[in-house]
Amino acid sequence: MGAVGPGFFALALDPVGKLAARLFVHSASLWTKTSFEHVLPGGETIEALAVGRSFVAAYTMPHRLLRILSLSGVPLGILSMSGSVVCLVGFEDLVLCVMQTPGPQSPEPALEFALYGISAKERLAAGRLPLSPGSSLRWVGFSAEAMP
């Protein structure tokens, strides 16, 4: 799995044999460290990946953690998420995570979202994601004005 951002890309590498899962990030900038590799704790795998202007976000299982790292590999934060990820997207300084609502599964999808500001280290918005009966989520993203 991979994600492309402004001037860099990120790849999620699954565990192989005794090697743990890893996150590999490569930058095209001449002024910063060109690449780094972040090794995840044993047993974790990357389920979703997103990039912003200055960060990489990786949703990992089985502990439902959102790991946020700078483009130089410095961990910026780890957030425990309430449900399994459906979609993860980054834009500029924002990351939007759409998750399944915890609890018993229903025939209609029950989804919730959380919008985070990375540099401010705060949750900007959260709540249920409204879906019409019989519909499904096909795409999540940001407009040019940074509106989810």
Key structural traits:
51% strand; globular; 4-stranded antiparallel β-sheet; 148 residues; mainly beta
> What is the alpha-carbon Rg in Å?
16 Å
- Series of H and E elements: EEEEEEEEEEEE
Structural class: mainly beta
Q: Count of DSSP E strands? A: 12
Q: In which order are the strands of the major sheet placed?
A: 1-2-3-4
Q: Major β-sheet, in short?
A: 4 strands, antiparallel
Mean pLDDT: 87
N- to C-terminal separation? 23 Å
Number of helices: 0
- Mass-distribution shape: globular
Strand content: over 45%
Give the quaternary arrangement of the chains: single chain
How much helicity do the residues have?
Answer: under 10%
Instruction: Identify low-pLDDT runs.
Output: none
What does this structure look like?
- The protein has no helices and 12 strands.
- The mean pLDDT is 87.
- A hairpin with a 2-residue loop joins strand 9 and strand 10.
- The strands form 3 sheets. It has a 4-stranded antiparallel sheet with strand order 1-2-3-4, with no helix packed on it. A 4-stranded antiparallel sheet has the order 5-6-7-8, with no helix packed on it.
- 0% of the residues lie in helices and 51% in strands.
- 22% of the residues are buried.
- The protein has 148 residues and is mainly β.
How is this structure best summarized?
With 148 residues, the protein is mainly β. It has strands at 2-5, 8-13, 22-27, 35-39, 45-51, 55-61, 65-70, 75-80, 85-91, 94-100, 111-117, 122-129.
